[in-house]
Structure to design on (291 residues):
């Protein structure tokens, strides 16, 4: 059984786009997502394997239409709900 | 990819909100986020991979040790794969006139950040991950690296526990160049295997 992240050898993806002088992050929020994830793993809220799994079980359409750090943020919020840290409403600001 | 400005400002607000919520619940300390961003950016650079490569070019004994047990060998130059969330196994592979190596992570984005710094977006793209394992010669040509048909290409697929780095071929005309200067000719793409140096 494979999941949507398992793209090795899959047909149909376009040419590889290189960005000259690419920054480490394309927006501040990307850096904050990376740091939030590191903080939560260091604190033992979840571990690295759980984090990877949360990305890899995203629905295929959401996985393919999300940017790299959007996937990370989805995984973080998924795990915060599953671990009982916050409700989806709280995370959404409701 | 959803990278337009409106999407970016919406997610930016959502991230700020979640961060504030976690701070309020004591799961993230004040100032911790900025500190972890600085840690990440200071945690690795292609200069480290370049330094390893230059040493391997000038010191055949180091090259042998590097290709046999990279985790141990890089400690000789003051580097380590233990600085992240978990110690990662490192395998270093060397290009020759007969063989070329290239690294990918088909499942996600595994990458030796300690030795190469943050990875480029193309490395994490579905396009690179899907295609380089099926048609490495064609993908390398897209990067401007046309290899002779006789060169054997090996693609190394990184995983959660294992990372790979390529030692590119030493450019001709660099005989007698000091080690530090040699490190200056090594590029990130050379260390991934998508360019010669």
């Amino acid at each position: 059984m494979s999941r949507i992240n398992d793209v090795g050898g899959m047909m149909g993806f376009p040419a590889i786009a290189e960005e000259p002088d690419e920054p480490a992050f394309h927006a501040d929020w990307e850096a904050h997502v990376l740091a939030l994830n590191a903080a939560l793993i260091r604190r033992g809220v979840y571990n690295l394997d759980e984090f990877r799994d949360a990305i890899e079980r995203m629905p295929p359409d959401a996985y393919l239409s999300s940017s790299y750090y959007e996937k990370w943020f989805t995984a973080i919020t998924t795990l915060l709900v599953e671990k009982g840290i916050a409700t989806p409403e709280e995370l959404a600001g409701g | 990819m959803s990278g337009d400005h409106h999407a970016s400002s919406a997610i930016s607000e959502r991230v700020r909100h979640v961060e504030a919520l976690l701070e309020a619940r004591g799961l993230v300390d004040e100032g911790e986020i900025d500190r972890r961003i600085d840690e990440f950016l200071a945690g690795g650079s292609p200069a480290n991979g370049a330094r390893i490569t230059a040493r391997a070019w000038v010191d055949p004994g180091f090259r042998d040790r590097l290709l046999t047990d990279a985790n141990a060998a890089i400690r000789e130059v003051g580097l380590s794969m233990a600085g992240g969330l978990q110690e990662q196994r490192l395998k270093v592979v060397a290009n020759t006139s007969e063989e070329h190596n290239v690294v990918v992570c088909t499942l996600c984005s595994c990458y030796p950040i300690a030795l190469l710094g943050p990875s480029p977006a193309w490395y994490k793209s579905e396009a690179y991950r899907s295609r380089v394992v099926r048609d490495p010669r064609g993908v390398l040509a897209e990067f401007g690296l046309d290899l002779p048909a006789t060169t054997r290409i090996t693609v190394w697929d990184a995983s959660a526990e294992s990372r790979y780095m390529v030692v590119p071929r030493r450019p001709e005309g660099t005989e007698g160049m000091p080690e530090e200067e040699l490190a200056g000719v090594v590029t990130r793409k050379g260390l991934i295997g998508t360019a010669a140096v």
